[in-house]
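Work Package 4 report. The design task specified in the project plan requires that, given a folded chain encoded as structure tokens, an amino acid be chosen for each position. We show below one input record used in the internal validation round.
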């Protein structure tokens, strides 16, 4: 894998020095490389060596050259049906459009001016001997693009019984300040409302740090969004639950939202298997009514530009942060002079 990456880096450096740079670089991975770099008894879904991922490494090489990359595996071109042909052509078209014009494949008018949304995910740096943990932050505030922020090394991280990291007071304050400083640098003012989606419950120290970081922000909404709740709904129809179906338990302020399912506009359910909802728990520090929080999360499932599907399961704030964290955790991160904030380098 390292030999192949060396060849890719050399070719991209040649392209980078050209007087006319392309808008995007398409990297076609030969079947011989797929076979040679795939561990025995594993499929070709991911190519990894000693914990390092081929796709993630190529994304970092492209970022270093400031040119977005598009990977093509042999399986992408193994088309057996007209539906596969249409789906893959559409996905490639949307992806290359987004990368070539440096963002903005589509936008929304639903994000109000003055509202700042962010998703939080954690990752460990593989090349650091001290087991450094950072946060990957997906930041949305104008409805047209995702801004990626990488936190400084986070102090005093604690893991719960499920292995989910939790921030200390200082780390939570640091993360909140970083998001708001970037917003203020872009907008010239602090937001009136700040919403943070996190895939684990908020601890007391995290609340206190975020409250101090957001001093001067009128409304603060902390929301726990979990992927795998132990509940499903079965409507009395031939189709699974409709996308947008919401089951709320008011006494506990917990909500089960179907972000995938039967879509009336398409008169079908596109997925495989029985869909399940995601779990949404507004924190005690949450100013906005829970129903509005759930509507916003449903809306954010249509803002991941890494797919042309009708919607994804998790809101883009969380799914993008997680995907970016896997790339930033790679060994080559420190060799990049500046981690770029634009999402099109990562997708």
């Amino acid at each position: 894998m390292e030999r192949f990456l060396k060849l890719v880096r050399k070719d991209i450096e040649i392209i980078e020095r050209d007087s006319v740079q392309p808008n995007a670089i398409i990297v076609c991975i030969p079947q011989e490389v797929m076979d040679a770099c795939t561990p025995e008894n594993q499929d070709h879904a991911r190519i990894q060596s000693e914990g390092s991922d081929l796709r993630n490494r190529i994304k970092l090489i492209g970022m270093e050259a400031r040119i977005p990359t598009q990977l093509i595996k042999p399986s992408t071109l193994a088309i057996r049906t007209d539906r596969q042909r249409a789906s893959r052509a559409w996905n490639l078209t949307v992806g290359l459009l987004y990368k070539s014009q440096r963002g903005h494949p589509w936008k929304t008018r639903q994000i109000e001016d003055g509202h700042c949304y962010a998703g939080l995910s954690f990752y460990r740096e593989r090349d650091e001997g001290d087991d450094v943990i950072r946060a990957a932050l997906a930041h949305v505030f104008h409805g047209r693009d995702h801004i990626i922020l990488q936190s400084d090394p986070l102090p005093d991280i604690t893991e719960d019984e499920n292995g989910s990291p939790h921030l200390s007071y200082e780390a939570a304050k640091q993360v909140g300040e970083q998001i708001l400083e970037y917003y203020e640098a872009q907008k010239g003012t602090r937001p009136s409302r700040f919403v943070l989606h996190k895939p684990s419950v908020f601890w007391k120290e995290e609340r206190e740090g975020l409250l101090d970081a957001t001093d001067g922000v009128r409304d603060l909404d902390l929301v726990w969004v979990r992927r795998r709740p132990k509940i499903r709904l079965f409507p009395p129809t031939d189709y699974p639950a409709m996308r947008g179906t919401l089951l709320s338990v008011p006494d506990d302020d917990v909500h089960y939202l179907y972000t995938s399912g039967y879509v009336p506009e398409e008169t079908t359910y596109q997925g495989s298997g029985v869909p399940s909802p995601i779990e949404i728990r507004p924190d005690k520090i949450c100013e906005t009514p829970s129903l509005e929080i759930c509507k916003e999360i449903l809306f954010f499932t249509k803002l991941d530009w890494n797919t042309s599907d009708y919607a994804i399961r998790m809101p883009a704030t969380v799914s993008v942060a997680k995907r970016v964290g896997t790339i930033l955790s790679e060994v080559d991160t420190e060799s990049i002079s500046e981690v770029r904030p634009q999402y099109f380098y990562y997708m």
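The first strand starts at residue 25 and ends at 28. Validation will be extended to a larger panel in the next phase.
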